[in-house]
Write a structure and sequence with these properties.
Layout: H1 4-9, E1 17-20, E2 24-28, E3 36-42, H2 54-71, E4 78-81, E5 97-101
Bound molecules: 2'-deoxyguanosine-5'-monophosphate (DGP).
2'-deoxyguanosine-5'-monophosphate binds near residues 4, 30, 39 and 89.
Amino acid sequence: MNCLFCRIIAGEIPSNKVYEDESFLAFRDIDPQAPTHILIIPKTHYDSVLEAPGEVVGRMSGIAAKIAADEGIDNKGFRIVINTGEDGGQSVKHLHMHLLGGRSMEWPPG
Ligand code: DGP
């Protein structure tokens, strides 16, 4: 298995999990860009959002909102991001949603 996030799902690589159900996993980013920086991924492998059904992406958004509430960052707000492809800055080719919060974030990002 070559996919890093599939290996995290399989438990071959440890992760700091914050949420799991039968179809999704969420864990803390190894290189956090904000006080709260969590990745939400589907357990089914999709290279990117281009391959995933919209329902999957919608469920990821719902999980991100739930985690934001659990982390206490829903009140002041947060950012969710799906980097896609080369220009989008996607480094791991397994669909993932970034949940970032706990600080004010500039726009556009630097
Ligand atoms: P992206 O650039 O959108 O493909 O984001 C990939 C993210 O994955 C990046 O923020 C760093 C994170 N990451 C890479 N390897 C690991 C790992 O082994 N464990 C964890 N927890 N995060 C990782």
